[in-house]
Design a protein that fits this description.
The protein is an alpha/beta fold. It has a domain of about 130 residues: Nucleotidyltransferase, domain 5, CATH 3.30.420. Strands 3-2-1-4-5 form a five-stranded mixed beta sheet. The radius of gyration is 19 Å and the shape is globular. It starts with 6 loop residues before the first strand and ends in a 6-residue tail after the last helix.
Length: about 210
């Protein structure tokens, strides 16, 4: 059976805080690949100007290194949403919408992205498949039960993946894409070994 999952979008956001309904997205980065693990065209929004009356936490800016001046000179969010919707539309494969992957996306990034779309009168579910996501934080907790922590940097180090200048969207996303591929390759390898074992298993005759 041909999988309905054709393209996977590894993505990351930078935001002005931790609450999707009170803070806003200020950077979006995507590093997609297809089911054969072949890289597809990346997307980087650049700095996005804050929208609405959303709060800006200086603590969040200290972490991602984005300055108030950069925010003031950022791209208009209306322009970015139209650009991003067009980008996502091109990643559909026939009727199959791409799925989202990333680190801690189920609890953090996806709620922010969904809110960003709703704020601009768009429906995210029309462009991505919500039936399944790949959250590498969850997968890491399953794989490394005794890991020091489950931050992206630690998980990448566990797989010997270099993460340079973390806490900026594109750098995190490129490293996380390698982590997602490692997990998928591990699943495929495990599946292959299981198939070989089943093939060797003797057939009982009655």
């Amino acid at each position: 059976m041909i999988s309905s999952i054709q393209n996977i979008i590894v993505f990351d956001l930078e935001t002005t805080g931790l609450k999707a309904d009170k803070n806003c997205i200020v950077e979006i980065a995507c590093c997609p690949f297809n089911q054969d693990l072949k890289d597809l065209q990346e997307y980087n929004s650049g700095i996005i100007k804050p929208y609405g009356d959303r709060e800006i936490s200086q603590g969040a800016l200290n972490i991602n290194g984005i300055t108030m001046q950069q925010l003031e000179n950022g791209a208009d969010s209306e322009k970015i949403i139209k650009e991003f919707v067009s980008y996502l539309s091109k990643l559909k494969a026939g009727r199959n919408k791409p799925i989202l992957a990333g680190h801690n996306i189920d609890k953090f990034d996806i709620p922010f992205l969904d809110d960003f779309f709703k704020f601009h009168k768009y429906d995210l579910s029309k462009y991505v498949n919500f039936d399944f996501t790949i959250d590498t934080m969850w997968w890491a907790r399953v794989k490394w039960k005794e890991s020091l922590n489950y931050k992206l940097g630690t998980c990448c180090a566990n797989e010997n993946i270099e993460l340079i200048d973390g806490h900026r969207a594109m750098n995190d996303t490129r490293a996380n894409k390698q982590l997602v591929k490692k997990f998928i390759q591990g699943l495929k390898s495990g599946s292959s070994e299981k198939e070989k074992e089943e093939y060797k298993r003797p057939v009982f005759q009655f």
